[in-house]
């Protein structure tokens, strides 16, 4: 038998050299048979589209054909022909089929239209469905877009540690890393666990952000970005929180608030434009099956200028709305953190475009944000998006040593863990700033999916670490 090179489905569907022999390999989506002819829809993950295999059942072993069921893996060889059917330009007139793996009849992805919760319980197999294939391909393209954007703009990709001894956000939501025997923990006379004999000789955790080390990079290399896993032990069971997510954190020397906001807007628009250009088939599929407003929303974000709004003005708008009868689940007044419903009100109902909010009360933001002259607000900048709420959190950093120390002391953050960070302010301090984009929140927005658990292959959430 002739040994043909495999052609990926994405490539075979582009070919027009009808009459050529081709080989495809993949997983069977559907197999319809009639007396005269069988049709097999085959997908190999390279595209949302299937290639249609046309099979003359009289030329094949009936036992073999019986095993070619949804989910089975096959290799098929035949002639590429122009398709008579609708919805595809070419198909393969099969001459030979090899069965790599039949598929047991209890294959969990057999039925269409299963709930997303059901899919999560079968996350090891859901990747083979149309929806998750589309989401994962888009996820890939977004990662490439991010690297491309920063590379084009002269940022260096900077690797920050995942294991750390400092709490970058000062929020105490860290997973501990230890090799200690948890069944036999030695404590000192005050009842505190002794870490001096632990692997790192001190208490360590998984990072909640690479920012502090990123600042070390930016104040040496000028501008850097990180892109890596981030861990938060916050007990938030929401459609927008993961315990393990990926974050992108650019950090830039000599940047001021207005330019930082420009960077946030330019970057995010670049990513969305990239998706519209490179992920057309998958986006059209999601627009049809998941969210009919998706493409409009993506095009809107690329087109619209993001609103610049201070926290104080935002609160005023929300208070006006409450006076006018708008009901919110949570109360809101100056000094309080906005809930997602407040953010979405501003973005989806009031302005109907993305909002960059700035100048938050210092009490609700992290210790490193630059204090404004009013002594009350800090130069934080969050980007608020339709459907998502906060997609980016960033700030200009406090570069003044004394002011930074005052903030650290006010929050009772242990100074001894911060000495290396403070050194940036002692040795040639410079104005600088940056932001963090939650990768999965970007993917949520770009795909129109409703739950963050459905845009990462294997989600980690409270009480759930399967697969
Ligand atoms: O606002 P956050 O906490 O900011 C920081 O971590 C800063 N160090 C960033 C910086 O200035 N370099 O987180 C940044 C973004 C959020 O806007 C959100 O998109 C995402 O990270 N994020 C999460 N995404 C998924 N699950 C979670 N639990 C998340 N927590 C934050
Ligand atoms: Mg934030």
Report on this structure.
The chain is of the alpha+beta class and 467 residues long. Helices cover 31% and strands 23% of the residues. It contains 13 helices and 16 strands. The chain has helices at residues 9-12, 62-67, 116-121, 130-152, 211-221, 257-278, 280-289, 294-303, 311-323, 340-351, 401-410, 419-426, 439-447, and strands at residues 21-33, 38-43, 51-55, 73-82, 90-101, 156-157, 163-164, 176-177, 204-206, 223-231, 244-253, 307-310, 355-361, 377-385, 389-396, 432-438. The protein has an eight-stranded mixed β-sheet, with helices on both faces. α4 (130-152) crosses α6 (257-278). The protein is elongated, with a radius of gyration of 27 Å. The two termini are 40 Å apart. 36% of the residues are buried. The model has no long low-confidence stretch (mean pLDDT 95). It binds 4-amino-1,4-dioxobutan-2-aminium adenosine-5'-monophosphate and magnesium ion. Residues 390, 393 line the site of magnesium ion (MG).
Offer a few descriptive terms.
eight-stranded mixed beta sheet; five-stranded mixed β-barrel; about 475 residues; binds 4-amino-1,4-dioxobutan-2-aminium adenosine-5'-monophosphate; binds magnesium ion
Helix content: 25-40%
Helix segment count?
A: 13
Structure ligands: 4-amino-1,4-dioxobutan-2-aminium adenosine-5'-monophosphate, magnesium ion
Class by SSE composition: alpha+beta
Query: How would you characterize the largest beta sheet?
Result: 8 strands, mixed
C-alpha-based Rg, rounded: 27 Å
Instruction: Indicate the proportion of strand residues.
Output: 15-25%
Q: Look at the structure and give the mean pLDDT.
A: 95
**Which quaternary structure do these chains form?**
single chain
Shape: elongated
* Strand order of the biggest β-sheet: 6-10-11-16-15-14-13-12
Give the number of DSSP strands: 16
| Ends distance | 40 Å
User: Which stretches are poorly predicted, pLDDT < 50 over at least 5 residues?
Assistant: none
N to C succession of SSEs: HEEEHEEHHEEEEHEEHHHEHHEEEHHEH
